[in-house]
Amino acid sequence: MADPVRASPAPTPLLSERVLKHLGRTLPPGGAGEELATRLQPGVPGTEPDTPRPRHTGPRSRLPPRGDPDSRPGAAAQPDRAPSRAAPAGRRPKLLVQLRRALRLRHYSGRTEQAYVQWVRRFVVFHRMRHPADLGEPDLSAFLTHLATVERVSASTQNQAMGALLFLYREVLRQRVGWLEQVVRAKRPERLPVVLTRDEVKAVLRQMQGQSRLVAWLLYGSGLRLLEALTLRVKDLDVARGEIRVRDTKGGRDRVTMLPRALVPDLTAHLEAVERIHERDVRSGAGSVALPGALERKLPRAPWDWAWQWVFPAARHYVVRGSGARRRHHLDASVVQRAFRDAVVKSGIAKRATCHTLRHSFATHLLESGSDIRTVQELLGHRDVRTTMIYTHVLNRGGLGVRSPADSFRIGDPAG
Question: Domain 12-51+94-182 falls in which CATH fold?
């Protein structure tokens, strides 16, 4: 009896030729691997892949990013997403193209789109290029089990993969996914955040220089996430009121947080230097910046306006594909992350501290100083106060200031 899977018509292509070439080294011999190679043979009608995009042959530093960057923190980490190519007439778009369109239709962030596409691609490759429509609960459970037992990923990573596949089946393939509800989700352990003392914060930031140092001070002094600080625009700073307006943050919510008075002189000098760079860019025919959504069509002159410029611009320009405009993206997150990691090592602090540790330290030190937990919740932008409550556990003393019974003894005294 013929195999019903092989007897059925060939499904819609899953991946582009470029992705298939990249993944070709990992395809197993025989089975779906040989079938995939047969479908890509040139000269056979209906099997030739799409014409590949022309590749950029200039220096790597001149490679244009993909599309225009979004102003949202989640999307601004990767400058410029390219629009999906239209499928030929009479042919359905590839699976990953459909996935990207569904994510953008629902205004998911760029980083979420990148993660979901990566998980769907890994899911397809794990099952030897079989179409997800032909797979079921055992196949999904096998993939998640592989992640947990072989690759030993964390619970949050496993649940992220689960969320990507749920979105694929529900919103892209339009299948009834009652069986997906039966798949066991990984239980996330409750971890206490790493917190630096005030002296440790000073020791680390003393080792940093330039823009990275100013960004780090904002993370600690205002409780910002790293990408929230990097995507600040000049109009978001209100020096007179001592406020920072954080736009379109995690969860799509805006909030207002404090601008430390101690940073005003350094921040003012930094903005004056950035304004001189912007004026020089405008004179050279550049100086524009990407705007969120459709604002560039509504406000044609706004990309050159000083109010819309990045507070922390990148050192080099990039060229917008299509228009050829030269622009600056904001400072890349990896620049600050490397500088902070080197500063922690130089300061000799034996803690696994990252840039996000400064945000944890901001909240903990405010609670230590007697600030109300609801106020800290608003400054951090937490939707639920239970998320902010984790910093009360870091204090390890609750509301009663409990002392250890060993503190009543002199440990080094032989008579004690």
Answer: DNA polymerase; domain 1 (1.10.150)
Q: What is the DSSP letter of 23?
A: H
232 and 254 Cβ atoms separated by less than 8 Å: no
Q: Are 112 and 74 in contact (CB under 8 A)?
A: yes
| pLDDT digits 0-9 by tens, 222-261 | 999 999 999 999 999 999 899 999 987 777 788 999 999 9
210: left (phi over 0), alpha (psi -120 to 50) or beta: left
Active-site residue, selected from the candidate residues 235, 326, 356, 365? 356
Q: Active site residue: 250, 255, 326, 365, which one?
A: 250
End-to-end CA distance of the chain: 86
Q: Among 315, 333, 316, 361, which residue's Cα sits nearest to residue 222?
A: 361
Catalytic residue chosen out of the listed positions 94, 225, 278, 327: 225
Active-site residue, selected from the candidate residues 81, 130, 359, 360: 359
Q: How many helices (H) and strands (E) does the chain have?
A: 18, 5
**pLDDT digit string, tens, across residues 347-385:** 999 999 999 999 999 999 998 888 888 988 889 988 888
Concerning whether 359 is annotated as a catalytic residue, the answer is yes
357 vs 107, residue with greater confidence: 357
Looking at the DSSP bridge assignments, the partners of residue 328 are: 317
Residue 298 annotated in active site:
no
Read off the pTM: 0.68
Q: Looking at the predicted structure, is the pLDDT value of residue 188 above 80?
A: no
- Alpha-helical runs (H) found in 299-354: 333-347
- Please state the domain extents for the chain: 12-51+94-182, 198-395
* Residue among 169, 220, 318, 391 flagged as catalytic: 391
CATH 1.10.443.10 for the 198-395 domain, yes or no? yes
Q: What is the pLDDT of residue 144?
A: 87
Q: What three-state secondary structure class fits 257?
A: strand
Task: Please identify which of the residues 94, 233, 328, 382 carries the catalytic annotation.
Answer: 382
